Amino acid sequence: MGTDARKPFLETAPWLIAVFAVNSFADTTGARQPTYNAKESTGIACGFLIAALHQAGLATLTPR
After folding, report:
1. Is the pTM of this model over 0.90?
2. Residue 34: which of 20, 46, 22 has the closest Cα?
3. Phi first, then psi: what are they for 55, rounded to 5°?
4. Residue 49 confidence class, pLDDT cut points 50, 70, 90
5. What pLDDT does residue 9 have?
6. With b meaning 16 or more CB within 10 Å and e meaning fewer, what string describes 19-50?
7. In 1-64, which residue ranges form alpha helices assigned H by DSSP?
8. DSSP H or E segment with residue 32
9. Mean pLDDT over residues 17-33, rounded?
10. Residue 55 carries which DSSP code?
11. Nearest C-alpha neighbor of 51 from the set 37, 38, 62, 63
12. Which of 6, 30, 59, 60 falls 20 to 30 Å from 53 in CA-CA distance?
């Protein structure tokens, strides 16, 4: 399946986008508060990004 450490396409891609989700944050008192639906919101945002890139005529590739 090609799931080893060799990923030559990462060296030839003109742009790479890394996506991170924030699971909690510090409020004004410094206490940690949870961020609700972080995975779902991140997935939706990535879907919108991929759709916008596709609409702009750019090729996109997501990892398997």
Report:
1. no
2. 22
3. -65, -30
4. very high
5. 76
6. eeeeeeeeeeeeeeeeeeeeeeeeeeeeeeee
7. 9-12, 38-55
8. strand 32-34
9. 90
10. H
11. 62
12. 6
Query: How long a stretch of residues is the chain?
Result: 64
If we measure between CA atoms, which residue out of 36, 42, 34 comes closest to residue 18?
42
Q: What is the C-alpha separation between 46 and 53, in angstroms, rounded?
A: 10
The tokens describing 28, both together, are 């004004």
Query: Where does residue 47 fall: left (phi above 0), alpha (psi -120 to 50 degrees), or beta otherwise?
Result: alpha
Instruction: Give Cβ neighbours of residue 16 (< 8 Å, ≥ 6 apart).
Output: 10
Most distant CA pair in the chain, distance? 48
pLDDT given for residue 7 in this prediction: 79
Q: Cα-flanking dihedrals φ and ψ of residue 45, to 5°?
A: -60, -40
**Cβ atoms of residues 42 and 21 within 8 Å:** yes
